[in-house]
Design a protein that fits this description.
290 residues, 14 helices
Length: 290
């Protein structure tokens, strides 16, 4: 098989544009509602304040950040089904399979649309509306964009890792700083998107519900399989903690094994899981027949 048969930049570009248009046609209304959820919450909060207290006041920053997170989660769980769920249907799927693009190009377009394009567009609209509302109405307080920047700087700064006078314990400070780095959880977010994308192309009906059930079933299986190892490890860890006679001894314990390389183990685990999901999506599209 020639490399050109697997990936051709010009062909992929044309297909990606077509895929974007198709996804927009199928999902634009839902995406618009999700993107404007901050505006809906703002209007609802103001109306409730006027009705019950007679005072004008927009939602505070904490509630708006929470709503933003919920909106992005809803986007990740609904977008794959709306855009790619029809590939399992005979009429649409047959025509889709005949599109002159390789399986790799179709899967790559799916992944880019699901992980990057849709969240960036929807999140950008949401944050832009939030910034506009907070600029017009000062009762909202600070906009989400500068707040996210401050939160990110707080997490990656050494002040968080040394908070609580633990700077004298370098191993504990290293552990806290590693697990509080926001970049550590990017692959988890990608994994959620890929999981629902896999469900959209694997299941033929009840895609979202079955995907959620499959996720819980898979998590349960993994938990059961890992329980003997994890219970033994943490039991030993707890016994060592109990036997420690000083904070310095506890700090040395955090300098060993998983505790020292917690972020690395988490990254490896998430990367393997995401690669397996990508392989599942690829082979499902490659073997898809009607």
């Amino acid at each position: 098989m020639k490399t050109n048969d697997i990936f051709n930049l010009n062909r992929f570009g044309r297909y990606f544009v077509s895929d974007f248009r198709n996804c927009t046609a199928n999902y634009w209304l839902s995406m618009l509602l999700i993107s404007l959820m901050g505006v809906v919450i703002y209007i609802g909060t103001v109306l409730m304040g006027l009705a019950f207290t007679g005072e004008w006041g927009g939602p505070d920053k904490t509630f708006r950040v929470f709503t933003f997170g919920v909106s992005m989660f809803v986007l990740m769980t609904t977008m794959p089904v709306k855009c790619y769920g029809k590939v399992t249907e005979k009429r649409f799927g047959t025509s889709w399979l005949m599109i002159p693009a390789s399986t790799f190009e179709k899967v790559l377009s799916m992944v880019l649309m699901t992980i990057f394009v849709a969240p960036l567009i929807s999140g950008g609209i949401y944050l832009a509306c939030d910034a506009f509302l907070c600029a017009v109405d000062k009762t909202c307080g600070a906009a989400i964009i500068p707040s996210l920047k401050e939160l990110y700087q707080f997490f990656i700064s050494s002040s968080f890792a040394t908070e609580g006078d633990i700077e004298q314990f370098p191993a504990i400070a290293h552990f806290v700083k590693e697990i509080s780095n926001p970049w550590l959880y990017v692959d988890d977010v990608i994994g959620i998107s890929l999981w629902f994308l896999a469900g959209a192309v694997v299941f033929k009906s009840g895609k979202t519900a079955k995907t959620i059930l499959a996720f819980f079933a898979f998590s349960m299986i993994i938990s059961i399989a890992a329980t003997p190892f994890m219970s033994t490890y943490f039991k030993e860890f707890a016994m060592r903690m109990t036997a420690m006679d000083s904070a310095e001894a506890v700090d040395r314990l955090f300098n060993l094994g998983i505790m020292r390389h917690a972020a690395l183990f988490d990254t490896i685990n998430d990367t393997v899981a995401n690669l397996l999901l990508l392989a599942c999506i690829f082979f499902r599209i490659k073997t898809l027949k009607h």
